[in-house]
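Tutorial sheet, problem 5. The two components below are modelled jointly, 606 residues in total.
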Amino acid sequence: MTAAYSMNRANLNPFLSAIAGDFELIAPVRTDIVRFEAVSDPAKICLDEQPFFPLKEFFFRKHEVILKFDGKRFTAPLKKAPKRVFFGVRRCDLNGVLHQDMVFSSGVADPYYAAQREDSLLIGFHCNEAPSEHCFCGSLDLKDFHDLMFFDRGEAYLVQVGSGKGAAFLKKFKKFFTASDYAVTDEDRFIEGVDKLKVKDISGVYDNPGWKPMVDACLSCGACTTLCPTCYCFELREVPSLQDESSERVREWSSCQLKEFTKVSGGFVYRESREDRFKHRIFHQLDYFKEKNGVNLCVGCGRCITGCPTRIDFVTGINEMKA
Amino acid sequence: METKSKPRARTAKKAIALTVSNPFMPTECKVTKFERQTTDTYTLKLSAKLVHEPGQFVQVTLPRVGECPISISSYSGEELELNIKQVGNMTNALAELRKGDTVYIRGPYGKGYPVKELKGNNLIMIGGGCGIAPLKGIIEYVERHRADYGKIQLFFGCRTPEDLLFKEHHNRWKDKFDLSLSVDQNPANTCFEGNVGFVTAMLEKASLEKDGSVAFMCGPPKMMAAAAQVLHAKGFHDDQIFVSAERLMYCAIGKCCHCMIREKFTCIDGPVFRYDEIGGIQE
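Model answer (structure tokens):
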């Protein structure tokens, strides 16, 4: 879909208000930090910086009861999310959703993810400049993945349609848009200074001594994987009721950075060393996933660096590795 | 008695009809037999009849306790047989089950031993401890398709004679195949007549034909790594060796990442791998 439209700047808030009237509108809002939240007043939307958390939690819930046992049988408490429109989503986070779609919709599809994801519409917001000093999305092969994409052109927004769903949505709100024969180019997609990871294929540096300072600084806290838009490790836990014979099977986010993550019966831990765990994350993001899916899992948002308590900058670390 | 129907809350989320079956939903089945094998190992037979490959596994659920992966030791389509060692909460709780009790399973999952694909070969099976269980699944298969295979050699080892699994089958296996048993230690008061020492010692002494043979292994990582070394020394190549990797699978559908071995997911790409697929065994 290459159709493009333009929107007068003054039309943006009325457009968003109209969306909020019909759907649940979710956009970046400044609270304690900038985060995605349901908004009814578009004046509260903050597009100045990268939201601290990605969209992950909206589709892949961080805590979800997937099965209930009533003492006799199991049922699945599967509820479909309401129709939601996400606005102000950066290219990295849009691709984060794409990669999570690949994980949860490929092979055996995950119905809990589908229930959250299906009725969502993604409206992107292009970064005219990198919103964070740790952005490195230019080093990843990101795709145009959105229903609609907004490019800020000062007086007006250039709006790119990315799907049939986006086209139908735009038609519903067509009074805010003006048709244009402009076609979005690579120049429009370009973001200055974000091609920071110089080593595009890291398969050759697994044994490089350059990992050591990063591993030494790692606390195995899992902040990186929690903030990551694509990390998808999870636990399945049984939570028995203390009152009766019922029980719940809960799915919760987990992290490959935690020592217990690869523990097997008998107590043996396969990735016991912090180095193995640290490298597993980086290699899953920048090497392993690509082997199966043709694209790196990482989208270059840099949150794992921004949110790391010891600010481990693996992008610089890998760039500085000597052969 | 309610006189007025309550207006439905606008926020009520509607339940959705599933277009695909829920991969996390287990199926109820009954225990048809509980049999103790050794002091810490037992066999469960379940009313479920699954079509599966030798080496595949099921996820077994006990409500209020949890779920864990267990390898299948029976023949496809017959009553599901699970051989379980008591090593934790789940396996201890499963040991309390008796005939008629309810248990829940989902599966089968994973890639098993490529027994059908390797028709015409000599088979070498090397098992240690409860690792013999999935190999029993292969034996069940080849017993029914004996003419499809050449020489069949079994090398099974346990800690002590007490720990030997499937004793009731040993005589039959001895008649049909070349069965070698060994124990790590043999206390004086037993009547065990096999070898004393590691499985790998038997393997070293055995005469193996490297051409037209494949080895199927399951056991402790150290044992499998040592056995692979012996096979290599005898001229076997990595692509003749198949191992079952031990990882703790949670989702079993290639999502949760617990069982990753580099880029491979043990639950869907394994648990049985050709030796070179996972670059050897991590001890």
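Marking note: Residues 179 and 205 of chain A are 49 Å apart (CA to CA). Full credit if you identified this.
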